[in-house]
Structure to design on (474 residues):
């Protein structure tokens, strides 16, 4: 093989020890071709309406929307303007996508040994069949090749959805979203299964910027005048009914901490009225968000939507970047997170409800064995989400398997959720998960903890069945 070609060995990610490696390869052969179930992510549903005939340019596809990519470049002194990231004030950013691509290629070495490097290599080599490694010297030729391929029928979003063997893809949509793109997809006759997910953060977290504007949007889309806490709750319940009618199976809640605490309706009303007047305290914000997590659990018990809680990210940590470019620009940093005490009020009320399902994610791995695995290993309501965000990696998955499975059990986890904005990276992420799962299960077999037949069932469950079961997917 020429050094100018991609290096992607077929037995990648498996341990060198021959017995376990051989078992891992055998297990992987049984799950490699299973359909992809993607029950949580951030791909834009407008890609699949059939109205756009391509992904745009290679820079539109792989760089500009992907914070995993531009956060690394920014950390090495490349400005976001130079990468074409839109500014809040409409200020000047690079418009020449060939220049953006060249900067990306000049710095591609930065991604060596990282999950992003693995995903990007897979996308270019496996999805777009680019044989030559991306370097400063090959950048423009690869740009030309991608530009031509992205015009072909096999590289249009709907066709790629089928070629990637995706069975179902769930997006993440604000509570005020009209779901117009989902309506178009649903009425188009296309058979791709694209489902919305209800995310109410912008209206239930009263410290969100432009919260009152979001409440006005909620009024508009729900048709309910919101002047009180009770009408606010009614509007949220109405939106959940609508999302469910459009195929939603889950909700998603991003919180700084998983703190829960129930308030009386009187106290909730007082805080809500202060929020409408724009004079809430930080204490009000914390109490209201904590109360709303319990309210969301109550609604999920009633309507059957799986509740996902994503805590532990100090979002928009870089104030200058946030002011200039807005949210989700690679400046979200994990914090230490406590679950046992924070979740106790919610679990006291709903923890023993077998008809309610709450999926917990974490960015604080110190909680795996100490809190999360014991909690999920006891409460019927709890399941553990996959290694998330910074831990969606080969090493992160290994740590997850080692620390969670003995106490929680495999069947109190939900398989894999790729949580991506970058549509072409989905097969790459699932491939890493499947290989990591097979490698870990092969270790169990090699040590005599399970037999080969059980091992085959476990890897199929981790790759496919657990996600379908956990998210009530047909």
């Amino acid at each position: 093989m020429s050094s100018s070609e991609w290096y992607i060995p077929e037995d990648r990610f498996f341990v060198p020890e021959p017995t376990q490696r051989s078992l891992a390869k055998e297990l992987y052969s049984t799950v490699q071709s299973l359909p992809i179930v993607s029950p949580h992510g951030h791909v834009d549903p407008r890609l699949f309406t059939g109205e756009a005939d391509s992904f745009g340019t290679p820079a539109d596809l792989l760089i500009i929307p992907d914070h995993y990519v531009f956060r690394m470049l920014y950390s090495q002194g490349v400005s976001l303007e130079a990468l074409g990231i839109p500014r809040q004030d409409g200020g000047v950013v690079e418009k020449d996508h060939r220049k953006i691509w060249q900067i990306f290629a000049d710095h591609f070495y930065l991604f060596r040994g990282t999950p992003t490097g693995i995903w990007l290599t897979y996308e270019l080599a496996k999805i777009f069949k680019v044989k030559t490694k991306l370097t400063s010297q090959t950048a423009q030729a690869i740009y030309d090749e991608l530009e031509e391929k992205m015009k072909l029928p096999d590289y249009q979003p709907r066709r790629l959805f089928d070629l990637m063997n995706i069975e179902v893809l769930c997006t993440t949509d604000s509570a005020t979203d009209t779901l117009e793109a989902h309506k178009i997809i649903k009425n188009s006759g296309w058979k791709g299964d694209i489902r919305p997910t209800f995310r109410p953060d912008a209206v239930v977290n009263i410290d969100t910027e432009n919260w009152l504007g979001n409440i006005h949007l909620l009024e508009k889309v729900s048709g309910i005048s919101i002047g009180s806490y009770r009408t606010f709750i009614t509007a949220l319940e109405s939106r959940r009914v609508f999302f469910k009618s459009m195929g939603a199976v889950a909700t998603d809640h991003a919180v700084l901490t998983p703190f829960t605490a129930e308030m009386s309706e009187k106290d909730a009303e007082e805080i809500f009225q202060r929020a409408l007047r724009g004079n809430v305290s930080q204490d009000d914000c914390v109490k209201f968000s904590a109360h709303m997590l319990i309210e969301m659990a109550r609604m999920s018990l009633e309507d059957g939507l799986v509740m996902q809680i994503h805590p532990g990210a100090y979002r928009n940590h870089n104030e200058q970047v946030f002011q200039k470019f807005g949210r989700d620009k690679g400046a979200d940093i994990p914090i230490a997170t406590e679950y046992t005490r924070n979740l106790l009020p919610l679990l006291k009320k709903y923890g023993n409800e077998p008809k309610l399902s709450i999926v917990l994610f974490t960015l604080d791995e110190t909680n795996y064995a100490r809190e999360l695995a014991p909690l999920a290993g006891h409460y019927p309501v709890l399941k553990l989400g996959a290694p998330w965000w910074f831990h969606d990696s080969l090493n992160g998955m290994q740590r997850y398997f080692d620390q969670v499975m003995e106490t929680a059990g495999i069947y109190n986890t939900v398989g894999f959720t790729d949580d991506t904005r970058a549509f072409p990276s989905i097969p790459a992420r699932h491939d890493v998960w499947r290989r990591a799962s097979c490698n870990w299960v092969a270790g169990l077999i090699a040590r005599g903890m399970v037999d080969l037949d059980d091992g085959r069932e476990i890897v199929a469950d981790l790759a496919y069945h657990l996600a379908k079961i956990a998210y009530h997917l047909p």
